[in-house]
Write a structure and sequence with these properties.
251 residues; alpha+beta; two-stranded antiparallel sheet
Length: 251
Amino acid sequence: GGILNPIIKIGENNLADIDEPDVGNIVDNLRRRYLNNAFYTFIGDVLIYMPPFSGISMYTDEDVQYYCENNAFDPDLKPHIYSFADRVYSNMLFWKRNQVVIMSGSSGSGKTINTKQFLSYIQSVSGGWDLSVTLKTRLAHLFNVLDCFGSAQTADSIYASKYTSQLQLKFNYFGDIVSCQLKTCLLEKSRVCGPPPGESNFHIFHLLMEHIGSDGSAYPFLSNTSHTFALKVTLPSIQDSLVALGMPEGE
């Protein structure tokens, strides 16, 4: 037999390029891409992400540099959240129009990590460097707080977000970031009183119990819940983040 076409082996970068886009061909294309560590695939202008559930590195400074130096609209460029972010940013600059990005998916599908990487890339390629550096630091503190106050352990994810957020970045005419605003809504407040079986309450409550040396069994809203891992943050780090975001010390 001849040499197998790499595209046939790995699968199309864009599902819209499949000759016969039926369910079987689409699933087969995604399966082949996943097995070849190609976890991002376009379908038209929509980016699909299939979490690897492993420690594969996909978000290095070298990756950022690679997508900065290549044309994001090149159909042969490997799909990535960075190429997607570059398309959005380029469209905004070229058309001088607002751009909307929706991160959608089930629990554990990678919405939070892709939101963070999208923002990280935009901060890297946009102007207004001094503000961008400050913004990057503040966003890191913000996500630190949100991970504790708005996330919980589920069967699918350790840090499953239980809220919806709207993040608005504003740019000047030259593409420099000038401001950022984040609003949270649809917080799953019912979890405070009674988490679903086998899931945890919001991480902040378990963090407080850990800080005072309690397993939380004396508190009905923490008993009979699952919290089987060590949090990646500490209570002092959350307090530092709150202060960095403007909350007075001691509150």
